[in-house]
Specification:
The chain has 19 helices and 16 strands. Helices cover about 40% and strands about 15% of the residues. The protein starts with a strand and ends in a 10-residue tail after the last helix. The protein is globular, with a radius of gyration of 24 Å. It has a six-stranded parallel β-sheet with strand order 2-1-3-4-5-6, sandwiched between helices. The protein has a six-stranded parallel β-sheet with strand order 7-10-11-12-13-14. By secondary structure, the protein is of the alpha/beta class.
Length: about 525
């Protein structure tokens, strides 16, 4: 039986706990007596508890995040009640700041804050030697990455086949955006690039096809960025998919040339635009060259096959619904494949709280601590924007309505205004913004475009049919059966090789190579 069990509750089965793997990789001699147990947040907690206790460990470490704080709190409470002899250690971003008043911290025996790669093994050595530290809160500090062992050998064959493979070439962020925990992680530290690429080679050799880089600023260090891209270019195969988080206004020619050599869909860039409102940007300590950002987007859409996932935030201090809408329209014109409309969250430890009084910022007291109202955006309008975000994801981002979504705003000055009308109309009829089957959503789109916007039935029917069959569907929804429509299109080999959501944006998608 292991002396130590490290566990967490992942948001989804196909997510893998990067943090747990780092901890085990750095346990040193204790690795042989350490077990890792991953669960999902929707699993029965009694079953989770049974699995942990069946190992009869002396120490249980629990990774705590914004998505699992509630079930993790219940798990720790039950574990300490049932087995008070087990030493419970918690860690993770959700408990690393403002920890004193948190119930889970009060129940745990120890808390390791920040990066625990080296601090947790040291704590476990002391506990097993029956020399426990007197202090309950153990600062993880900022370890030199040369001392941190990389965890990639711990991805199993099952992980590579079924789960997201997270990797990182650096930690930290040079920027100070007040809504983001990464603003507290200065300076940026780099893993040795040759050693890192050697680990990537082992993953490739093991069959890994999709890599999600969690670096906050992948394109900050050009030497490292180019080395990584060249590495994957040299080993490219049709099913390779790389996800990077990018600084929006930094894309020099040397990097552009390399990016343009990847085929369509092989690269996905997550680009945090967040706001186009310069006054809001100044308020939250975010500097961004919006002209350079636009130039970079235009290059990526016109001259590369990169899939762009761009982020905007609703509810920032100083932002109105109208100014957000102006920014949304501006971003939509730049034609990213996806616009993620996010609701502002008050992450523990972030300095965004300094605006609470002046801008009357009221947040939910429950995770994920989303904004409920501001001085400029009342609760009712934020609710509308929550629904807007969900319907946009279903219609604007999914790739299921690439042609028909354009009809919504083709004759309007503001796509945001028109889509908000659709969002309100859909919610009035569905009473919810989730769990809507694709065929019903397609019919709702048809009815809105024809009945509300007075568009031609034939034009709308053909657009929706093209959208519906883009992913390989061949059945015809009943509301389209009276129209003379072409045979379903066949998916290209190129689209079949990509992750499902990205593949829907390849066929018939202007801007790809």
């Amino acid at each position: 039986m292991p002396d130590i069990v490290l566990t967490t509750l992942n948001a989804r089965y196909w997510h893998s706990s990067f943090g747990l793997r780092y901890l085990i990789a750095n346990m040193g001699p204790l690795a042989e007596s350490t077990a890792m147990l991953e669960f999902g947040i929707n699993e029965n907690l009694a079953d989770v508890l049974e699995s942990i206790i069946s190992q009869n460990p002396k120490i249980v470490g629990v990774g705590v995040y914004i998505w699992n704080i509630e079930p993790a709190t219940k798990l720790v409470a039950d574990l300490k009640k049932l087995r008070p002899d087990i030493t419970v250690v918690i860690g993770g971003p959700e408990v690393s700041y403002e920890s004193e008043q948190q119930q889970i911290v009060q129940m745990a025996d120890y808390l390791v804050t920040g990066e625990a790669d080296l601090a947790l093994p040291e704590l476990c050595r002391k506990l097993l030697a029956k020399s426990p530290p007197l202090e309950k809160i153990i600062p993880g500090g900022i370890p030199a990455l040369s001392e941190v062992k990389m965890p990639y050998h711990l991805y199993t064959e099952e992980d590579i086949k079924n789960r997201v493979i997270y990797v990182e070439a650096s930690r930290g962020c040079p920027f100070t955006c007040e809504f983001c925990l990464s603003a507290l992680e200065i300076p940026v530290r780099q893993f040795d690039v040759d050693e890192f690429l050697g680990e990537m080679q082992l993953l490739l050799d093991g069959g890994a096809k999709q890599f999600k880089f969690v670096d906050r600023t992948f394109n900050l260090n050009m030497r490292v960025s180019k080395a990584i891209l060249q590495f994957f270019l040299d080993r490219y195969r049709p099913d390779l998919f790389l996800h990077f988080e990018m600084i929006p206004d930094r894309l020099p020619d040397s990097l552009r040339e390399m990016i343009s050599r990847f085929p369509p869909g092989a690269l996905q860039f997550e680009i945090g635009v967040q706001t186009f409102n310069d006054d809001v940007g100044d308020l939250i300590s975010r500097k961004q060259d919006n002209e350079k950002l636009a130039e970079n987007f235009q290059f990526l859409r016109k001259e590369t096959g990169v899939h762009i996932h761009a982020d905007l935030i609703v509810g920032l201090p100083g932002e109105t619904v109208e100014s957000f809408g102006t920014g949304f329209d501006r971003l939509l014109k730049l034609n990213p494949q996806e616009i993620q409309v996010g609701i502002l969250k008050r992450l523990r430890g972030t300095p965004i709280t300094r605006h609470d009084e002046d801008w009357e910022m009221i947040y939910s007291q429950s995770a994920p601590y989303e904004i409920l109202s501001t001085k400029l955006v009342p609760f009712e309008d934020l609710q509308r924007m929550r629904r807007f975000a969900k319907f946009w994801d279903l219609i604007g981002n999914s790739g299921n309505f690439l042609e028909s979504r354009e009809l919504i705003w083709s004759d309007a000055n503001s796509p945001f205004v028109e889509f908000l009308k659709l969002s309100d109309w859909l919610y009035a009829r569905e009473g919810q913004s989730h769990g809507i089957p694709l065929t019903r959503l397609a019919e709702r789109m048809f009815n809105f475009l024809v009945q509300v916007q007075q568009r031609s039935e034939e034009v709308v029917a053909h657009a929706i049919w093209n959208d519906y069959t883009r992913g390989g569907r061949e059945d015809r929804p009943h509301f389209l059966r009276k129209f003379d429509l072409p045979h379903p299109r066949k998916r290209t080999h190129e689209a079949k090789e990509l992750p499902q959501r990205q593949s829907r944006h390849v066929v018939g998608n202007a801007g790809t190579k």
